[in-house]
């Protein structure tokens, strides 16, 4: 996740100081990707160095406030009009784990899948519970609601993929146990 | 905690001899008052068989199915039909409403079949329709409704007359994402109000609305996720 782009986009709303930027970010994402204030200030310093933001003095309490420069506005526009690249998928520990589980001897792959499915289902239940409380709230926060939906759909996709892995493994196991006898002949006969 | 539905070592075999298929293999399963349980599994896993047995639409080859303390297997046909009208509500993917009857008439039907006077039955039906948010559509026919509205009518029909076991078979299957969630919200609310619900689905996103998720594979329960918070809930307040 690009902290840089997120901070620039938030500054489209108007000048803000570091702590404010952090709370604006977390309001929208519900603390799903926590930002520490140090990270925010380091990023702001770099953005200032690159000419995308500029200091806009201090507020009454002495917080240094930042605003977007002309280049900064351009950068935000570019970000919103460019799709997020999917060419380099992030490293997926679960996919790697299963790829190794089916090749390394002595691993009960079925067990690995079942345990993961139960854990992912629990997470999905938690997200859904959060959604339900959101629905009950007087003012539904659209931004946070969408982030929550994204987590829900991702967890659902993971469970579907685990189901798929399970049925592929079962089929592979069946074919293997049938193979020595008559299976290849039957295949040809069809 | 009171179990509204109990399946005790239930097996169901379809067919005989070499072609016999064991759809459920000694499955033990409960749904308590105030609890929504989801049953997930691929096609052929036995999830629909489980639901038809729970609803008394089919009988187990062995084992017992108990609803509100009554062993469905020991009931005669007549008593079992009565249970289906008074204790068990069924919600289907394709709504199963009667097209020649209005929404209110569809909902009142189980009550009238059970011998209630038409006026009392209609009044109860209108109340049930109000509860699912479509009281204003009481006089409309199913064909003049959207899928989401029709499924709300079906839910009203499933709960009318204080039925405490709701069985739902892919109730959101024909609906778009948001309408589907409204339906789950309704099921959830009924369970929070004290009914026991069983939701059969192949979509994890929908199963996640349940307190517990049971995974079936080839007629056997392989996994179960989610704690049973029902005990704690009941202890905290209602003292059922």
UniProtKB/TrEMBL annotation, chain A:
Keywords: DNA-binding. Pfam families: PadR, Vir_act_alpha_C. The keyword Glycoprotein does not apply. One of its GO terms (molecular function) is DNA binding. Gene3D superfamilies: Winged helix-like DNA-binding domain superfamily/Winged helix DNA-binding domain (1.10.10.10). Residues 7-76 form the Transcription regulator PadR N-terminal domain. The keyword Zinc does not apply. Residues 91-169 form the Transcription regulator PadR C-terminal domain. InterPro entries: Tscrpt_reg_PadR_C, Tscrpt_reg_PadR_N, WH-like_DNA-bd_sf, WH_DNA-bd_sf. This is DNA-binding transcriptional regulator, PadR family.
Automatic annotation (TrEMBL), chain B:
One of its GO terms (molecular function) is ATP hydrolysis activity. SUPFAM superfamilies: P-loop containing nucleoside triphosphate hydrolases. This is Putative ABC transport system ATP-binding protein. Gene3D superfamilies: P-loop containing nucleotide triphosphate hydrolases (3.40.50.300). InterPro entries: AAA+_ATPase, ABC_transporter-like_ATP-bd, ABC_transporter-like_CS, ABC_transpr_LolD-like, MacB-like_ATP-bd, P-loop_NTPase. The keyword ATP-binding applies. PROSITE patterns: ABC_TRANSPORTER_1 (PS00211), ABC_TRANSPORTER_2 (PS50893). It comes from the Bacteria. GO terms for cellular component: membrane protein complex; plasma membrane. It comes from Nocardioides lianchengensis. Keywords: ATP-binding, Nucleotide-binding, Transport.
């Amino acid at each position: 996740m690009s902290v840089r782009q997120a901070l620039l986009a938030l500054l489209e709303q108007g000048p803000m100081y570091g702590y404010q930027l952090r709370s604006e970010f977390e309001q929208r994402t519900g603390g799903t990707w926590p930002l520490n204030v140090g990270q925010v200030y380091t990023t702001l310093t770099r953005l200032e160095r690159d000419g995308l933001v500029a200091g806009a003095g201090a507020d009454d309490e002495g917080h240094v406030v930042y605003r977007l420069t002309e280049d900064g506005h351009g950068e935000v526009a570019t970000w919103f009009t460019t799709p997020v690249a999917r060419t380099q998928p992030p490293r997926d520990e679960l996919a790697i784990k299963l790829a190794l589980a089916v090749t390394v001897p002595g691993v009960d792959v079925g067990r690995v899948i079942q345990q993961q499915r139960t854990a992912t289902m629990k997470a999905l239940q938690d997200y859904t519970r959060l959604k339900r409380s959101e629905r009950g709230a007087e003012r539904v926060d659209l931004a946070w609601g969408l982030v929550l939906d994204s987590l829900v759909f991702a967890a659902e996709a993971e469970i579907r993929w685990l189901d798929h892995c399970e049925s592929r493994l079962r089929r592979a196991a069946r074919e293997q146990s049938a193979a020595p006898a008559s299976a290849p002949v039957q295949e040809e006969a069809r | 905690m009171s179990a509204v539905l109990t399946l005790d070592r239930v097996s169901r075999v379809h067919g005989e001899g070499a072609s016999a298929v064991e759809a459920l293999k000694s499955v033990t399963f409960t749904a308590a008052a105030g609890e929504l349980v989801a049953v997930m599994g691929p096609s052929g896993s036995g999830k629909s068989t489980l639901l038809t047995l729970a609803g008394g639409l089919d009988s187990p080859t062995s084992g017992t199915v108990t609803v509100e303390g009554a062993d469905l297997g020991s009931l005669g046909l007549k008593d079992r039909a009565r249970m289906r009208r008074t204790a068990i509500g069924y919600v289907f993917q394709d709504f199963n409403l009667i097209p020649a009857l209005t929404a209110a008439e569809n909902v009142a039907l189980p009550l009238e079949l059970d011998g209630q006077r038409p006026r009392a039955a209609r009044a109860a039906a209108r109340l049930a329709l109000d509860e699912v948010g479509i009281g204003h559509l009481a006089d409309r026919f199913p064909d003049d409704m959207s899928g989401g509205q029709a499924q709300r009518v079906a839910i009203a029909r499933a709960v009318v007359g204080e039925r405490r076991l709701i069985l739902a078979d892919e109730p959101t299957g024909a609906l778009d994402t948001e309408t589907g969630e409204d339906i789950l919200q309704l099921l959830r609310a009924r369970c929070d109000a004290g009914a026991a619900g069983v939701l059969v689905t192949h979509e994890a996103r929908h199963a996640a609305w349940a307190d517990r998720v049971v995974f079936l594979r080839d007629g056997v329960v392989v996994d179960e996720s989610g704690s049973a918070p029902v005990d704690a809930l009941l202890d905290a307040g209602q003292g059922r």
